[in-house]
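ok trying again, last paste got cut off:
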Amino acid sequence: MNISTPIIDSSRLLESHMEKPSFSYNDGLVLFLDIMGFKDRILRTSHEELDLQLREFKKRHNKLKPLMDNGSIELLHFSDSIIVVAHKADIFTLNRLVKIATILLQIGLESQFAMKGAIARGKITFDPIDQLYFGQALVDAYLMEEELKFYGVAFHHSAEKLVIEALERMYYPGSKKIRIYYPIHECSIPLKTCKCKHYLIAWHKLNTALSQDDITEDSKNWLANMNLTVSGGPRVYVDNTITIIDEINKTPKIESIEKHRVKTAEIKRKKHKERLEKKIKKDKNKGKHKSSHK
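nice, full thing came through this time. structure:
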């Protein structure tokens, strides 16, 4: 995690000098992203060329603006790290943060800035004026990102309760027609020391217009281009990412979480009914046994 002078939107600084708000929050969401192979890129690319590449990459961040919602979500890009902080922790903010992560992952791979990262939930201070950035959620997201052995974004356990809530509520409140799509899946992911199940963002399940779609072919082409820039060990990230994409694509599609919940409830009711019937039968047998001894 390299640290250099943060790149901050000057218009935000001008607005903030007028009235300095509090940047400390009790509960928020943090996305931490690490640009892979950045140190090697610095060694192999002229400073001027890398400067142009990063500025071009940053220009494409404009797609994020409609999702930032007047400062409720903020972004900081310094050196090989990108931090996105949401000052709320609800399912609608999660939806926007997932889309922001998807945009960054997609334009990153397109620009050959492959990234891995994590989303955590907790206390966070994000103050561009005094340049204070700290909190448990930031630490959790950073440490989780360090564990990953693929390109993409996984969820730290601190954010999983919110993820499950989001997946259970597929529609906006009071509406059964306006559907919220969360490109989030649970599958086995490769870590430094093991492989285990986590929720992660299925970034290839949204197209570049952020509509539900399958861009597996484009995604694999971007990954194939990444292989042209690395040899040896680093290629495992490409292989692992393709494996995850294929695993997600095999997952049966559930049209509605509500249907799934109804089916689960029916199974529970059936099991409960079977237990009751067994109990009644057992009680009857006990009654017959007692009467036979009289």
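cool. Residues 10-253 form a domain with the Alpha-Beta Plaits fold (CATH 3.30.70.1230). The chain has two domains: 10-253, 257-294.
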